[in-house]
């Protein structure tokens, strides 16, 4: 891609229609992604970020169509992760002395990954780079989402180049927020926040408040993934502030796995009880071995409360449930209630294990959970439905 987005600013990144997972298999990208890089041609010419190394060749070819590489005065690297710096290696082999402006932690990250001693210039929040009439102002964004993350703001054009912040893994030929399917955009934006940024919410609130206190006008927010926010760009800042403040909807999510269906039957009966007690609440049942783990985390993020179910196996829980807790704990969800359930044949430890993991992950237990021997019979069915009804009452908002 190489097209003008405003004034003398060009999008020179790539759309990745085929990618299905990001960071190995950590994050599913059902809708593809893009690596957005930008070229600003003023008195001084600046390239902001590059792209994934799989796109090095096409990236450099497109860049050459826009500018003689030797005329690039500066490169700004907002973040060292490979999806934005993979093509830097090839580019720097062609223009090895070009100064690279980045954070101190980004130098460490780039040296650690590529073992190159490029012409680094370390910048901090408030530092400025003159492009002639206009300036780039740097804003460090540590832990949003890596220690090296940074954004920069172009004066006069009033554009925030936010890198990962405010992005989505979303491939589209139409790159502006007002041109894409708004439902898809919202889902991908929320998934990105829930799965990547939730642990850093307190830092994010402070950083956004710091940026807003500068009273800078925002005509556009140019992210490094997905759409450019040009229609009411502040909407995504407001969304992030809402999500960062222990976000929840009137939703209960039941996540579970099952061996011979008893725990699944329990899940469905508990859901029935919740729905009987509260016709307003959204209830979702997600089988952890069948559902995408990042989609599950998006649903947990939206929930006011969760129920986790597993049968007892080898005195513990099924591995899919244990793996889900690895994610749930790491994402540091706040202000959510929970309980657990599970079937057993003889020893029956799963509910105890689940409760311990819920507490360890920061959830408020509303009761001791429900364990049930073998498949629910008539009495067991009533117990599950009653348990669901009680859970709905205890978590009602
Ligand atoms: Fe898009 Fe943190 O890389």
* CATH fold-type name of the largest domain: Metallo-beta-lactamase, Chain A
Q: Radius of gyration from the CA trace?
A: 24 Å
- Strand order in the largest sheet: 1-2-7-8-9-10-11
Low-confidence stretches: none
**How many helices in DSSP terms?**
12
Approximate helicity band:
25-40%
**Unique ligands:** MU-OXO-diiron
In one word, what is the shape?
Answer: elongated
Total DSSP E strands: 23
Class by alpha and beta content: alpha/beta
Return the CATH class of the largest domain. Alpha Beta
- CATH architecture descriptor text of the largest domain: 4-Layer Sandwich
Tell me the β content: 15-25%
- Total count of domains: 2
Mean pLDDT: 97
**CATH homologous superfamily of the largest domain, by name?**
Ribonuclease Z/Hydroxyacylglutathione hydrolase-like
The gist of it:
This protein is α/β, with parallel strands linked by helices and 397 residues long. The chain is 35% helix and 23% strand. It has two domains: 3-244, 4-Layer Sandwich (Metallo-beta-lactamase, Chain A); 252-394, Flavodoxin domain (Rossmann fold).
Task: Describe the protein in words.
This protein has 397 residues and is α/β, with parallel strands linked by helices. The protein folds into two domains: 3-244, 4-Layer Sandwich (Metallo-beta-lactamase, Chain A), CATH 3.60.15.10; 252-394, Flavodoxin domain (Rossmann fold, 3-Layer(aba) Sandwich), CATH 3.40.50.360. The protein has twelve helices and 23 strands. The strands form five sheets. The protein has a seven-stranded mixed β-sheet. Strands 12-13-14-15-16-17 form a six-stranded mixed β-sheet, with no helix packed on it. MU-OXO-diiron binds at residues 79, 81, 83-84, 145-146, 164, 224-225.
